[in-house]
C-alpha cells in the first residue's frame, strides 16, 4: 500500500530539521542553555512547526535538548555525569551485541573491525578527540549491525550524541596504552570469534573511559 505523500514529506522535513539542529548544537552554533523558540527555528530552517517539534522531541530523548512544557525549550547544558552514564549504557549495549554476534562473524566483518580499530589508534595518536569519538561510535555500531538487532541499534543511536558533543570540548590527550591493550584484546577475540573474550575487552576499556570522564569532572 503506498504511503500518503503528506506523511512522507513531513517525515523527511522532520529528519532535515533534526540533522540541522543537531549539527548546530555539536558545532556550538547553538550554545548550551540557549533558548529554542519555534518562530525563530521556523525562520532559520524554513520548515514548519510540526516537523521541528518532532525533531526537538528526538533531540530531547538523546539529551541534547531540554524541554519544560509551557515554559521553555533549550539546548541542554554540558553534563559530564550524564555523558558518563550514557557511556556506561553504550558499553553494556556493545558488550551484549558482541556476546550475540561475534561467534558468527565473517572474514569481511573481522576486516571491518580491524579497519575501525586501526582508525581509533590513528585518531588517538593525532590527539583528534572529535574523530576518536566518531570512530568509537562507528566501531560500537558495527557490532550492533553484526548482531542484526535494530532495537539495540536504536538504543545506541540515542545515547551516543551526548558523548560526541562532549568530545568536541575535551582537550586532554587520549591515553594510548589502555587503548592499544584494548585493540589487541578485541582483535584477538574477534579473529578467534571468541564472544566472551570480546565482551571482557569491551567492558574493561569502557570502564577505563568512564573513569577518565570521572577524573575530568573532578
List the helices and strands and how they pair.
Layout: H1 5-27, H2 38-45, H3 49-61, E1 65-68, E2 72-75, H4 80-101, H5 107-125, H6 129-147, H7 150-167, H8 176-191, H9 195-217
Antiparallel strand pairs: 1-2
Structure commentary:
With about 220 residues, the protein is mainly α. Helices cover about 75% and strands about 5% of the residues. A two-stranded antiparallel sheet has the order 1-2. β1 and β2 form a beta hairpin. α4 runs parallel beside α6 and α5 packs antiparallel against α8. The longest helix has 23 residues. The chain is elongated. The N terminus is likely disordered.
Based on the model shown, name its key terms:
218 residues; mainly alpha; two-stranded antiparallel sheet
Please trace the helix and strand order, writing H or E for each element.
Answer: HHHEEHHHHHH
The number of helical elements comes to: 9
Global Rg: 19 Å
State the secondary-structure class: mainly alpha
The biggest sheet amounts to:
2 strands, antiparallel
Low-confidence segments = 1-5
Helix content: over 70%
User: For the residues shown, what is the average pLDDT?
Assistant: 88
Amino acid at each position: 500500500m503506498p504511503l500518503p505523500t503528506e506523511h512522507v514529506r513531513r517525515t523527511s522535513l522532520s529528519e532535515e530539521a533534526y540533522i540541522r539542529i543537531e549539527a548546530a548544537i555539536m558545532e556550538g552554533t547553538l550554545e548550551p542553555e540557549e533558548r529554542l523558540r519555534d518562530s525563530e527555528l521556523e525562520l532559520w530552517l524554513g520548515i514548519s512547526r510540526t516537523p521541528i517539534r518532532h525533531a526537538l522531541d528526538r533531540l530531547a530523548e538523546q539529551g541534547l535538548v531540554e524541554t519544560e512544557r509551557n515554559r521553555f525549550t533549550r539546548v541542554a547544558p554540558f553534563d559530564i555525569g550524564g555523558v558518563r552514564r550514557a557511556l556506561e549504557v553504550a558499553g553494556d549495549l556493545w558488550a551484549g551485541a558482541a556476546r550475540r554476534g561475534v561467534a558468527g562473524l565473517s572474514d569481511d566483518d573481522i576486516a571491518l573491525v580491524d579497519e575501525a580499530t586501526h582508525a581509533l589508534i590513528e585518531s588517538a595518536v593525532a590527539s583528534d578527540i572529535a574523530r576518536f569519538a566518531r570512530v568509537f561510535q562507528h566501531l560500537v555500531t558495527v557490532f550492533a549491525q553484526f548482531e542484526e538487532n535494530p532495537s539495540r541499534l536504536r538504543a545506541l543511536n540515542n545515547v551516543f550524541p551526548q558523548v560526541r558533543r562532549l568530545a568536541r570540548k575535551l582537550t586532554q590527550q587520549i591515553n594510548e596504552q589502555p587503548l592499544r591493550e584494548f585493540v589487541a584484546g578485541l582483535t584477538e577475540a574477534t579473529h578467534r570469534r571468541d564472544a566472551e573474550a570480546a565482551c571482557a575487552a569491551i567492558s574493561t576499556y569502557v570502564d577505563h573511559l568512564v573513569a577518565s570522564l570521572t577524573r575530568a569532572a573532578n
